[in-house]
From TrEMBL:
It comes from Mucilaginibacter rubeus. Keywords: Signal. Residues 1-20 form the signal peptide. The keyword Signal applies. InterPro entries: DUF5683. Residues 64-225 form the DUF5683 domain. This is DUF5683 domain-containing protein. It holds the Pfam family DUF5683. It comes from the Bacteria.
Length: 225
């Protein structure tokens, strides 16, 4: 009896094992008709970095905007380069500064000429009615010669400083026109604002190097914007 049950169990086991090896004939599974987008493979051995199109910088240079032309315009006529760069609001500032410096030059030149002629009157023939600055020579008759000479030199120095300031403003506005034309009209538009921290080694100065510590560990921070 037990042998019969044993052989019956073994026989049943082999039947199920054989059924498991029979292929499913109910039908072939339909393949997915959707196209799978495969990533672009980089050739073997290539060191080309993978660029994410969403983070790739997009530059918009203005090929019709020439920085050299902006500089030459500003050197010829103050503010012309700013007009060329469409920075109209800078023109009043430029002419305001140049106007004040021009007024300072005229003011100090006037008093320099006055004190110079008065000094010559005292060293030579006194002024007569009708001579230039005759009224001023009477007004400053009691002023010592040393004070008059100091006033003349102060006027000369202030005039020279005003001239240097005038030239400086002229040059600065030309440089400003170049910067606007160079960098404002060649820009990047993206949202790739990130930074990366990588370890590295820093070479110590010679005086700080020991026997076995020519390098010290450090961190390198790279900002991308």
């Amino acid at each position: 009896m037990y042998k019969f049950l044993f052989f019956l169990g073994v026989f049943t086991f082999f039947i199920f094992a054989a059924q498991a090896q029979i292929a499913d004939s109910t039908g072939t599974k339909k393949s997915d008709t959707l196209k799978v987008k495969h990533p672009v493979k980089t050739p073997s051995g290539s060191f080309a970095p993978k660029i994410d199109p969403a983070k790739e910088k997009i530059y918009h240079p203005d090929s019709n905007h020439i920085p050299h032309k902006a500089v030459m315009h500003s050197l010829m006529v103050p503010g012309w380069g700013q007009v060329y760069n469409h920075r109209w609001w800078k023109v009043p500032l430029i002419y305001g500064g140049l106007g004040l410096l021009t007024s300072a030059i005229i003011y100090n030149q006037h008093y320099y000429n006055e004190y110079l002629i008065l000094s010559r009157y005292r060293q030579g023939t006194p002024a007569k009615p009708g001579d230039p600055y005759y009224a001023e020579s009477i007004q400053y008759a009691q002023v010592p010669d040393a004070n008059l000479n100091d006033a003349r030199e102060n006027s000369r120095r202030n005039r020279d400083l005003s001239i240097f300031g005038f030239l400086a403003v002229w040059g600065i506005q030309a440089v400003d026109a170049y910067i606007d034309a160079k960098f404002i009209h060649s820009y990047t538009v993206d949202n790739n604002l990130s930074f990366k921290v990588t370890p590295g080694l820093i070479n110590q100065p010679v005086f700080a190097q020991g026997a076995n510590n020519a390098y010290i560990p450090g961190l390198k921070v790279t900002f991308t914007f």
